[in-house]
Write a structure and sequence with these properties.
The protein is mainly α. It has one domain. The chain is built from nine helices and no strands. The two termini are about 35 Å apart. About 40% of the residues are buried.
Length: about 210
């Protein structure tokens, strides 16, 4: 039992250490949480995506990712383009004369919201290095049985984080009743997206 708990907590800690950070995906979940738009489905998609990628790492796909630098490069530049475009949209929202409050502004359809969440997830090449390669490799150090306990712990971390972020954003609703707060958030989101896009351009992606 101790070994099972140890592997589970190791997975939980490792998973949280990778996803609890300012990033494009988290910024999108936060914004949708504040808007209260499709929060459950977006959080579920993000968490299940992590679960699937971690599982692929456990079954050995990490070696494929490590041996396919060309595919990672394609994702790298697709991610740069997507983040750059989204940064421009966020900046445009921030400078509009009629900045929105929580209940104003056009709503995203469920399909569009899920498509954007998926793009933030799968067009980020680092997600494959972090989940498939890094977490998959760590999981496999625990042996053929406990590797899945580790993976379950890491997956639990993803579920806890995304649903806490998505629904916890509602506590900030009084602050975001002011248009200025939305402008500041969109400026920060634009800055995060731009920095991430630049980092993808400047930083070689390796699994080492």
């Amino acid at each position: 039992m101790g070994s099972f708990l140890g592997a589970g907590f190791a997975g939980l800690g490792s998973g949280l250490s990778l996803i609890v950070a300012i990033g494009a995906q988290n910024a999108f979940v936060l914004r949708q949480g504040l808007r209260r738009e499709h929060v459950f489905w977006i959080c579920l998609l993000c968490a299940l995506s992590d679960a699937a990628l971690i599982s692929l790492g456990v079954v050995g796909l990490g070696a494929v990712v490590e041996a396919a630098p060309a595919a990672i490069e394609v994702l790298r530049w697709a991610g740069v383009a997507f983040l750059g475009v989204y940064a421009c949209f966020a900046l445009r929202r921030a400078v509009r004369a009629s900045s929105m409050t929580v209940n104003d502004g056009p709503s995203l359809a469920l399909g569009a919201a899920l498509a954007q969440a998926a793009a933030f997830t799968f067009l980020n090449p680092h997600v494959y290095l972090d989940t498939v390669l890094f977490l998959g490799s760590l999981a496999n150090t625990h042996g053929p049985v406990l590797c899945w306990v580790f993976a379950a712990g890491a997956t639990l971390g993803s579920f806890l984080w995304f649903f806490s972020l998505g629904y916890g954003a509602r506590a900030l609703t009084p602050l975001f009743a002011k248009p200025l707060a939305w402008r500041i958030l969109d400026v920060l989101i634009a800055a995060v997206m731009a920095v991430l896009a630049i980092s993808l351009v400047l930083t070689p992606l390796t699994g080492g």
